[in-house]
Amino acid sequence: MQYFESDYLEGAHPLILQRLLETNMEKAPGYGLDKYSQSAREKIRKACNCPQAEIHFMVGGTQTNATVIDSLLSSYEGVLAADSGHINVHEAGAIEAGGHKVLALPHTYGKISAEAVETYINTFNCDANNEHMVKPGLVYVSHPTEYGTLYTKTELKRLSAVCKRHGMPLFLDGARLGYGLMAEDTDVTLEVIADNCEVFYIGGTKVGALFGEAVVITRPNLIPHFFTIIKQHGALLAKGRLLGIQFDTLFTDDLYKQISKHAIDMAKKLKEGFMEKGYRLYFESPTNQQFVVLENKEMERLAKNVSFGFWENLDSNHTVVRFATSWATQERDIEKLLACL
Amino acid sequence: MQYFESDYLEGAHPLILQRLLETNMEKAPGYGLDKYSQSAREKIRKACNCPQAEIHFMVGGTQTNATVIDSLLSSYEGVLAADSGHINVHEAGAIEAGGHKVLALPHTYGKISAEAVETYINTFNCDANNEHMVKPGLVYVSHPTEYGTLYTKTELKRLSAVCKRHGMPLFLDGARLGYGLMAEDTDVTLEVIADNCEVFYIGGTKVGALFGEAVVITRPNLIPHFFTIIKQHGALLAKGRLLGIQFDTLFTDDLYKQISKHAIDMAKKLKEGFMEKGYRLYFESPTNQQFVVLENKEMERLAKNVSFGFWENLDSNHTVVRFATSWATQERDIEKLLACL
Amino acid sequence: MQYFESDYLEGAHPLILQRLLETNMEKAPGYGLDKYSQSAREKIRKACNCPQAEIHFMVGGTQTNATVIDSLLSSYEGVLAADSGHINVHEAGAIEAGGHKVLALPHTYGKISAEAVETYINTFNCDANNEHMVKPGLVYVSHPTEYGTLYTKTELKRLSAVCKRHGMPLFLDGARLGYGLMAEDTDVTLEVIADNCEVFYIGGTKVGALFGEAVVITRPNLIPHFFTIIKQHGALLAKGRLLGIQFDTLFTDDLYKQISKHAIDMAKKLKEGFMEKGYRLYFESPTNQQFVVLENKEMERLAKNVSFGFWENLDSNHTVVRFATSWATQERDIEKLLACL
Amino acid sequence: MQYFESDYLEGAHPLILQRLLETNMEKAPGYGLDKYSQSAREKIRKACNCPQAEIHFMVGGTQTNATVIDSLLSSYEGVLAADSGHINVHEAGAIEAGGHKVLALPHTYGKISAEAVETYINTFNCDANNEHMVKPGLVYVSHPTEYGTLYTKTELKRLSAVCKRHGMPLFLDGARLGYGLMAEDTDVTLEVIADNCEVFYIGGTKVGALFGEAVVITRPNLIPHFFTIIKQHGALLAKGRLLGIQFDTLFTDDLYKQISKHAIDMAKKLKEGFMEKGYRLYFESPTNQQFVVLENKEMERLAKNVSFGFWENLDSNHTVVRFATSWATQERDIEKLLACL
After folding, report:
1. Structural domain harbouring D122
2. H/E segment holding residue C257
3. Which Pfam families would you find in this protein's record (chains A, B, C, D) (predicted)?
């Protein structure tokens, strides 16, 4: 069986486990006050060229989204997001459980545009009844998106501009950020993100860590008492060192980039393999998630030897399925997959 | 100036004020335990032919929607509603503030169909990731809808059937219910609603009362501890007699129907007046809200003498506006309005 | 039967009903934008000598407490209140339903002291683990308290000072405010309250209105988007004129004070009647609620002809019961009550 | 420097790290569906002699408390807990953020009694106003308590009986459960806990794991859709295998008991050392937390070489401080500490 259904099938990059092992019996204060967390923060600040950034570590994506969004919104505000956004579809209502509406915008392969945001806000502002409506208070984007697509630097800048014009923070969900940063032809770097987003996070769970997301607040004091907010959301890890050590390792010697690049290479090989054999891609994805159109019979046959993600029915005979590579995918995994076609 | 922007411009039907006056100095227990509330409940049960119904009175629509929906949903459930539904647009996020997602469905002039509900649920049930998603737990419809349109008896029965099939209650927002019941050609009566909805409410605020909505729970014990839930939502009126007296009056000698019928007659006169003068209706509304297409210049001119509601831009030269009649509209109001055209 | 169990047994002062009647068929915009609400606001500003005050009207006490407290607290903050406070005991958890902890302080007949607040905050500030704890963010007092007792001007000033010192607003629940203002020997006026509290409300429900509480925000812009917050809490009355007319009437020709004074006179007569007959007061209450110690047998006998509130068991043979007078109590009601002893 | 301020200073027991290492590159499904989680569940069921138990793994204590309590309560219910309980003091209001009131009971060194619970409920049931109050819906106890004390089997049985009598679940927070199970003279075993509690959890974070709490639901189907509830609370770990592997290791060859016993031995040695040197214990604690009374000067001197937890001021000259041992404490750590006295 070949496994391509997600990018969190394995444990962690071996270097991370090694460092957990080396430091295991050291005594360290809890809750992120340890020296490893401090070191990781310093390295991330440098990587983002954002010396003033506040950095907090959390365990998982839904937790991070719910905690950050709740902390950035007033009670009467909602969050603008793509209709297809993770927070709108696959977080079991965690945002609403925190009291906030997700204001869904139409998307193009997972992306929303500055124009759509601007139009939403202008329409809201012109509505004579807007005091009876949820005020848009934040824009959420994911990069890569749930479709594996990427914003360009220009697109991010324009989103940031519309947000600034309307006094709203821009929050970027980077659960798969490494795979975005190392895509070919992207001009979006960590520095570009830090320049344009008030808050974003660097995903570890899907990019080489056992677990963990590094939240970067690029404007100091944007979120007062964030530590307590994290605690209230049940998102404060007692042994914060575990997060510190992992991110410290990922941000040493460019490990985060290097393993992300590997996943991109594997995705390229996979994509090319499919195309050579005459398969059709649903659309062009530059990152570690590839979406392929399969005839339903072919899909059923393939499912016996390969695991992949169901994406959507294309028509009565075809289905779109997702193959995900990761830091841990090996070249021979791809070869075995292609051999099954 | 002629006022047609809403159906809550005046106080209450004179008979209601008279009874408030007559009973004013009587001493009555609070919180709906008084004899007037008991009497009103009895009359409503009869009018619905639903002797087992539990009936609670609340003050306003948003409050009622938020309290009822919160009481019917488990924490992991959301409410299916038309994209255009009041709870999705004009309640400032009250449902989400209670922790629940509004699962928006496409609508046709404010109505959703049993097919759309069925499709949503089947798609949800078939989704391998549905444990990560908000479970649909309730269907919300408004009748009349925000567009003034009405469900037919068959449509309600089919909505009820799909709800029952999937173990979900059907909740009907009747903020303007009287105007629906008295529309020409409708086959939906209070009894039909009580037969098909687990919970619904009979709107008073927009139909002759100072304020007040009568919540009818057609299945006994569907909502344990509803009294405490009402209190927790700040929706328990200390002098519950005020609600009891108002609904007792509205349900004496068919007053509720009679004044609703009057509003329908006035709407018909208004509609015919517009049509005779060559105006175009946006669509055919059978109730007290009429939607007329106006040239923008005409609209601006009219706005100097008549107040109405902005609905939407039709094209660059035309706008859809709303005129609402009510129990209090007088024939000469319509005449004056038509004279302005 | 003589009724003394609460101060909301009747409808409204006749002048209020008369004005509702006179204005009934006028057309007025909704949601508090009408001229009566504007007029009432202006009169209340004058009565408080607080020209910059923002004033909003809501329907009931629990609703007002929940809405105001939610609007004043950040998500990580709680509200300091007497252990016996209405919000801590008798609002069905409305504050917690909004996400906030009530931080209970010991009380003396319903009152908390500036010292207790100061000590709580200092202890909190010195606790090395306070980032794991709920931050006190607001002080709630009721005046009169649930025991009918009153703060002095000095006590309020000291509470205000400790609040200011720690950057917390002081919020005063005035559900029975009239009866406090007109108590003998009090030096607390509306002006004193407006000087010392960031937010307070003037109770109408228990003091002559059908319903209604006037929320006074003494610092402009303290609560951005309060209108939307009110809507979200289901606390926005469609026909806001009803609140405007009631408070406009109550603040015309000193009606609010005059009818409150009457309740105090009646309470005094009641108290003196009990004392003359040798009964013991549980403590000295200066307002419209009187707490009397009854032998249990006497209590049972009395309960056949008089309704009153159970307060607490004093010992195995004695019970404390509450008698409430109001704007509507008549001298002969007291006489009949005393004749039953 | 000697570190005794908490029991989560180190990483994990070496056997756990070894197994994480061995299994690291295996591909496993996420969210707890992996074979290690299944195996761990089976071992825990056996250890509890509760074959029907449902078992879910979460990351930390506050998260677990908030998720479980929210899942067990209706919206109108609160949780009874010791005034000193972790959920009432040190979870930043996580329970209230979920909408529920913590109903605080007086405690004796962290313990509440069946009598106190019974009295609370009877008082509630007899209160004529209880429909305006938060209904007690659940009892929360911690074992060991925050004071390191333990319930006896009889005490747990009596708590369970009062809960059953009133239809409430009993929930036991076992963040330090191992240290309770292995205390000398305790008659409370995992089986006893499973017999008496509807839900409890077995703490890993403080007892040898990197992180993790195993929630045991002893009554099948008590909590429908718990998986989705976990997700909504941001408490679902993507790589659930990490929790499975850790608990599988802890419940292999009695490792959990063995390392817990070691902590108890170390605590005993520490306690005896203090007593031999004439120090006074604040009270007798049978578990890994020991509370010692220190003169303030002695405390300040000691703090230069030893870290410990501040507990409370005893009088103006004395302070109670806490020393915690753990699975990782070494005999020579104790000796060095005692040498500092």
Report:
1. 14-250
2. helix C255-276
3. Beta_elim_lyase (PF01212)
